[in-house]
């Protein structure tokens, strides 16, 4: 579904498409209560200019995705995602579970390799974890997304390559 919208929802001229869920706005462009403050603070802001400034700051500080195929920019939205407490309570346990699972996987493949012994990962496979930091701590990559009805779900972003 594609929402029809003005280029700057912060101006108040934005009206979400009737068949799409908008996390910040209810019907007819009315801000949802948990977004009212941030949208008011962005009123009159050129979001394209703000987005470009954020991208420039990230690039100047070397924040980007990288891998064997080179580097790509790391995108940060100018308008933050706001999760009310009730939504966060339902998501937090799933995010913790995914972080623990990814950390356990990485610890095992770089350690005792029980997953190889169990036949889940073929022996001789090269496992590449793209989110290992310099201290060796694994950094899981999970995210959240809303469905067309507004239900928030935890996603697992696969960042492990087995070859």
Tell me what you see in this structure.
It is a single chain. The protein is α+β, with helices and mostly antiparallel strands and 163 residues long. It folds into 2 domains: 1-82, no CATH class; 83-163, no CATH class. The protein is built from 4 helices and 6 strands. It has helices at 36-42, 47-60, 85-109, 114-117; strands spanning 64-67, 70-73, 127-129, 142-146, 152-156, 160-162. Strands 1-2 form a two-stranded antiparallel ribbon. Strands 3-6 form a two-stranded antiparallel ribbon. A two-stranded antiparallel ribbon has the order 4-5. The longest helix is centred in the middle third of the chain and has 25 residues, at 85-109. The chain is extended and about 60 Å long. The two termini are 36 Å apart. The relative contact order is 0.12. Residues 1-9, 129-139 and 158-163 have low confidence and may be disordered.
């Amino acid at each position: 579904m594609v929402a029809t919208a003005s280029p700057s929802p912060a101006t108040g001229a934005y009206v979400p498409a009737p068949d799409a869920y908008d996390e910040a706005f209810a019907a007819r462009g009315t801000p949802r209560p948990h977004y009212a403050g941030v949208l008011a603070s962005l009123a009159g802001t050129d979001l394209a200019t703000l987005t470009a400034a954020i991208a420039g700051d990230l690039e100047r500080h070397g924040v980007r995705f990288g891998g064997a195929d080179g580097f790509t920019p790391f995108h940060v939205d100018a308008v933050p995602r706001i999760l009310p407490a009730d939504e966060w309570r339902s998501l937090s346990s799933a995010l913790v579970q995914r972080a623990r699972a990814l950390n356990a996987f990485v610890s095992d493949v770089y350690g005792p390799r029980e997953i190889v012994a169990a036949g889940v990962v073929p022996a001789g496979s090269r496992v590449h974890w793209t989110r290992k930091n310099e201290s060796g701590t694994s950094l899981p990559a999970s995210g959240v997304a809303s469905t067309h009805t507004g239900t928030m779900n935890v996603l697992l972003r696969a960042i492990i390559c087995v070859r």
